[in-house]
Amino acid sequence: MTLEQQYSTILNNISQNSLNPKVYDRSSLHHQKTWFEGLATLEIAVHNLPQQKQEVVDLYEELFSEGLDFKASYELDEMDYAFYWDKILAILSALAIHHTEVYAQIAFQYNETRRMYRNNAKFHYYLNLAIETNVPVAKAVAAYFYYYGINTEKDKERASQLFREDSGDWSVLYQAYIQLNEKQFEFLPAVIEQLKSSSDKKIKKNALILEGSYLEAIGKPEEALSVFEQSYKSDYSAFSLTRVAFIKHMLDNTHKEASMKLWKEAASLGSIEAMNYLGVNTFPEVYTQEAYTETVRWFSLGYLYNNAYAAYRLALIRLYVEGWEEKAIGFRLLEEAIEGGSLDALIEKAEIYTEGRIIERDEKMAFELFQKAAKEKDAPYAYVRLGYLYEIGAGPDGEKDAITALDMYEKAVEKDHPYGYSNAGRMYRYGIAGEINIEKAKAYFEKGVEQNIPFSITELAFMYEDGTLAQDYKKAFELFGKAAEGNSAYAMYCYGQYLQNGYNDGEKAPEQAFYWFQKGAELQEVNCIYETGRCYRYGLGVEENPDQALYYYQQAADAGYPRGLVELALCYEYEYGVNFDAEKVLNLMIKAAEQGYAFAQYKVGVYYMHGSLGEQVPINSEQAIMWLNKAADAGYPYAYVELGDYYLWDYDNLNEADRAFAFYEKASEQDVIAEGLGVCYEYGIGIDYSMSEAFKYYEMAANKNVIGAMYRLGNCYLNGNGVSEQPEEAYKWFFNAAQQGNVPSQYLLGKLLLKGKGVAMNKEEGIEWLQKAAEQQYAAAQYELGNCYLMGDGLEENEDNAMYWFEQAAEKGHERAIKIVGGNRR
């Protein structure tokens, strides 16, 4: 049965003779059926006015007080609501002739009805009728709306005029609301007491609401709660009920269920704020499409009754939530929210154009929208984003404008916006808009720290770390920790670095470092993902685990993180937890190299230079030189060494050995001393001959564990080249190099042991070292081993064995071996 049919039945059941407007009280009117019975009674009574006028007015007041009309109608379908709407307008219009205060009620109905019935022109028409007939509340409401530009152009001068024309309690009340909104608290306590003593019960009711709002605004939530509870109990105020629920929830999260119940009751009485709280608090923690149903229900109800915030939240769901996505509807909702004055929606639309989400990036449109938010709403965040757009050259003239960007950031600072502090601080720290100003940067970052803004905290930490301010690792450590505790993923990485390396007080704390790296990894911070992998790889603060190391390295590599790509490549190269895979090694290294990562460029160059990855990656000097030059251009010292070796040892028969010295010298400027630098001095290649310089560089390189330099230094001591002859030192360096696989050193070490030169004679050990070198096809060692067999020196004399080793040496071009083998053959 439709509402129209039900209402017709109710009318027929009401006898005019038994008409009694007094029988309906507020508690009974909370039931929809009873409310419509009351409305039918009112309709009949209105047609009999002026009989029982006061009783009729009283019934009207009960029916349309504290949202009871909303409670009776908000669940109606479209057809029933249309009947309801037409019916109440007809009744109220008839009653207004006899009781002019109803003109204000009609105006409010047009302002607060469902969006399809909302009519701003009629709102103003009936409000003006109320003003003309001296309805006390009308002029005050009109002044308030003019002051804030609600349903009209903002006109504070007109608002002031209307307030001056009316010195009554309603005018005082609405001016007090303005003072409250603008945090002008000084005179409010006296005003509240004045209004509470009013003879008008509606004023007294609103005075309690004002008092609760004032107490909440000045940071006294417990006292505000008490006042709102009093207001709710005495007047059943939907607003007070909403605030009771909010404050209880804010003070103690365990009250959420009770708060939800109160919000539902307040929503049924027309509190859009309560509907929005219900929408927010039913937002699902874990995604499923069904989980959003309740959230959508509450925001849809708020949207139905014209709330811009509800439209904005619905827009976000329609734009971004899987299963609910309908982009066209989302954009329409966003536009409607903007038309309704939602700053959030305006900012969201601007962000969409800035970031190119959903639709094509349009920085010009984004700029216009942020400019609108700044101009019309004086929105601090809009100034921040305008600053960013000026900074990247997306302003009106398309040129980067750091000076205007800084001006925008400082406008945000004036509004106490945290990102204003962060960005203005950054501009001054790095001199982006002119000269560097460390004091201003520090002051802005410190304000950001007070507001727990991660960027400000970490930047101030870096200033203490790098000596921009008086270097203080302890302060830097504390700041990184503060930002990490505040859930800044990048700060977790920095904090972990301090803990892992003991930068703060020298005490390393690898377990704590691992904790923060892993926490940052959970937030998808790529540095932390990489570091977590490294901790598992090398057992830093956690037990070594190849599978976990590879898991995190793969994540870092998938994110394109150069160090992650390199470490994963090295795992495949050295078979750490995976099989060797030359193709993966090369591809991963090239990806890192293409991002300008110098070590990766060097490694790719080495792979191509030496064919060290096997047949799948053959020697390619052109590719090798290209990548090594890139690494060298980036200043990577070992790339200089590799290029020097290429020219010195003339891999491609270019006969350009003189070019080698410059590369070795550049490497030495970074304290990387190559064997080749000494060779250049020893043989006068690219530099004047100087055996003393050659010895100096051999010694420097040998002390840095360069194996070839150890061998050459041993030779210098053995033969007195660039230094006095010192066979004991020669033995030491040959021994060090021989143990690390240097074949010439193994040969010479064997000879020294056989002869007892520079070391006690030990023919057995000497033969062992000669044997090692000979088996590695070193001709001089093969020849010497042949002599030992021939002469019985350290070995049992054996001519066949001697000839075997002489032949081996001869095949490699050893001249003395050739003579022996050749003579024997004759």
Please tag this protein with its features.
mainly alpha, 826 residues, Serine Threonine Protein Phosphatase 5, Tetratricopeptide repeat, 0% strand
What does this structure look like?
The protein is mainly alpha-helical. Among the domains are: about 1-100, no CATH class; about 185-280, Serine Threonine Protein Phosphatase 5, Tetratricopeptide repeat (Alpha Horseshoe); about 775-825. Helix content is about 70%, strand content about 0%. It contains 46 helices and no strands. Helix 19 packs across helix 20 (about 345-355), helix 20 (about 345-355) packs antiparallel against helix 21 (about 365-375) and helix 34 (about 600-610) packs antiparallel against helix 35 (about 620-635). The protein is elongated, with a radius of gyration of 43 Å. The termini are far apart.
Offer a concise description of the structure.
This protein has 826 residues and is mainly alpha-helical. Helix 7 crosses helix 8 (136-148), helix 8 (136-148) runs antiparallel to helix 9 and helix 38 (675-683) packs antiparallel against helix 39.
Helix vs. strand class: mainly alpha
Number of strands: 0
Task: Please report which band the strand proportion falls in: under 5%, 5-15%, 15-25%, 25-35%, 35-45% or over 45%.
Answer: under 5%
Radius of gyration (Å): 43 Å
Helix amount: 55-70%
Biggest sheet, open or closed, and with what strands and sense? Answer: none
Straight-line distance between termini: 128 Å
Uncertain segments of ≥5 residues (pLDDT<50)?
Answer: none
* Overall pLDDT metric: 94
Shape: elongated
Number of helices: 46
